[in-house]
Amino acid sequence: MTLRGRTAVRWTVRTLSEICLTAGALIVLFVVYLLFWTGVRADSAMDGEIGRLRQQWSTGGAAGPGGTPSPDGKRAPGRGPAQDARPRPYTSGASFAVMYIPRLGADWAKPVLEGTTTGVLQRGLGHYDRTAHLGETGNFSVAGHRRTYGDPFKDFPRLRPGDAVVLTDGATWFTYRIDNRPYTTLPGDIGVIDPVPRKSGFNGPGRYLTLTTCEPEWGHSHRLIAWAHLDSTQPVAQGRPSALTG
């Protein structure tokens, strides 16, 4: 091989090596972004949403009558049928409740926002906008990321029948109880959020909760589903429910 040929080979090898190193560095940076930076930003956003809700509730802005049913499921005193025929709609993109799942950690608390767009799920859990309101007869359905953006449902597979899922809208505590181990299905299986969700084992109308997230952990080819039923309610004024204090 001539000197010119050897020089060309060395140049080619060096160039390819630099490209591989650059690509490797970019991949590492992207992974760091996914694992760390999106989590930092999402945690900050979720903390901010919860802080705003608590501030709103402390100044008398809890949902309460007209936003969600009263603890006994009846209309609030003094409100007519026309006023309470339907609860006030949730505001798209805005938070309206906080969810607690003791099984996922003593400090696990996430805001629930209206809608399931990408931007919403970067700030907390998202309520499917055509499903029931919190505590209402029907299926209150919620989605959340398994990984990235704070990993809210990272430990979703740990859920077991009997586990509590507690939510509050600032006026009422709603305690749901999980009825199944996480069920795997395809993204197009929208029957899982029907008013009486298909394959849930529920056989008639009730006050249900559906939680959904991605499967596998770092993919989105399937969905994990957990169903729950409303077990109890109590006014916030009576303190935290036993599911959060026991």
Automatic annotation (TrEMBL):
This protein's UniProt keywords: Hydrolase, Membrane, Transmembrane, Transmembrane helix
Spans through the membrane: 20-40
UniProt xrefs under Gene3D superfamilies: Sortase (2.40.260.10)
SUPFAM superfamilies: Sortase
Positions of the catalytic residues: H145 (proton donor/acceptor), C214 (acyl-thioester intermediate)
Superkingdom to which the source organism belongs: Bacteria
Region (Disordered): 57-90
Pfam hit, one: Sortase
One example GO MF annotation: hydrolase activity
NCBIfam families linked: class_E_sortase (NF033747), sortase_fam (TIGR01076)
Name under which the protein is recorded: Class E sortase
Taxonomic classification: Bacteria, Bacillati, Actinomycetota, Actinomycetes, Kitasatosporales
